Amino acid sequence: MSESTPLPEQEVRFPTLTPEGRRMLDFLCEHPAAPFYRNQSGNKLLAHEVGQVRQFEAEIAQATVGWPAGGKPEWLDGFIRTTFNTVPYYRQLGSPPGTFEDLPTQSRADFAADITPYVPDTADIGRMINFRTTGTTGHPLLIASHPVVAARYLAFHKRALKRFGVELRHGSGQVGVVLLGHQQRCFTYVSVTPTMGESGLAKINLYPDEWRHPDDRARYLDALAPEVVAGDPISFAALLELPVTMKPRALLSVSMLLLPALRARLEQRFACPVLDIYSLNEVGPVAVFDAHAGGHVLLQPQLYVEILDPDGRPVAPGQRGEITLTGGFNFCLPLVRYRTGDHASLSFHADAPVLVGLSGRSPVRYLASGKWINNIDVTHALKHLPIPHFCVHQRADGVVVLRLAQAMSALGMEARTALELLFGAGNVLLEVLIADDKTVQYTSALDGANA
């Protein structure tokens, strides 16, 4: 084949595919109960990159995560110097300031406006990949990435799983991971994981319209028998309704708030650990919830976390503020003081720093009996209920609107009763939550609610 002749599409998506891997792809696509796969994707890893990713996984498994309380990680100064030398946005600022806290912060809106100034000159444009995030805060993102970066996610999921006694074993001829969605529109595809012997990977949509027959969902999942199932509370709630007999070794919840009651139902049904992983498209898996540690334990050794007040100043130890990140493993998008829009306090556990009281996006206050309460109080009021997803909005007249997919069910009535204990009888309305994708959970029309 001459250099000018384009490679077949499958060779582009799977450069190292073996006959065993091809059989796995055929099995995933051609099973009689398979869904309608709407998209195509692949690992795109070259042979030498597979070895690099394996080495990376070994290093992450043994790495120490964290820095001294009141101090900074040893790698931070070198990372900042390299970033100022190679990233256009920072190079135009001149030399790094003498104090780390004098560096400018960045936000999702900055990246959404134009991501290109934040991509290093050293990034191999020919090997780059990108994807768009949906955006729950009004700022959809185009993320610069690379096949090696995408493959590195598994190292941190393995680290999180090992914390709960699970070490992945599935390899050639087995399905390693099924990614669940439950949306009217969902990116779905099949792939293989070269670092795990080309074990199968499938991203499926549990929405009934994506299948020849709704009963095929359970048949297909049982046929795949994945070692790990990843999803969000919405897709896991749909999974609970299916008569599956598969026995995954772990479930990973990778977005949205996972309430304790729903986690308990999943653990009881599938008799395996259910991990709540705090993950961002901009930086990958950040932390995993561990009740014994008191919060979400950090996973990345090359990620520094600050907690900032609204003016960008570090808060006192133990105080809540905005989670702000520097570093990361995406060499196509190094982060410097990136404000996530998520909030927590930071403590130091025996083996790693811990995000305590994590809440996604901007904290919202609610007015209850003439006093402001935190949106965390709303979460606490609902945490005993196995609700996959909810939205709470306070109108300008003070009435609270609770939106649930199952609003008119007995569970919806229980949820309203729970909130009436906070806001008073008759002050909570139930509405049906209609959403094709992730939505902002906490909102308010009251002045001062976003203080």
From TrEMBL:
SUPFAM superfamilies: Acetyl-CoA synthetase-like. Residues 204-327 form the AMP-dependent synthetase/ligase domain. This is Capsule biosynthesis protein CapK. It comes from Duganella vulcania. The lineage of its organism: Bacteria, Pseudomonadati, Pseudomonadota, Betaproteobacteria, Burkholderiales.
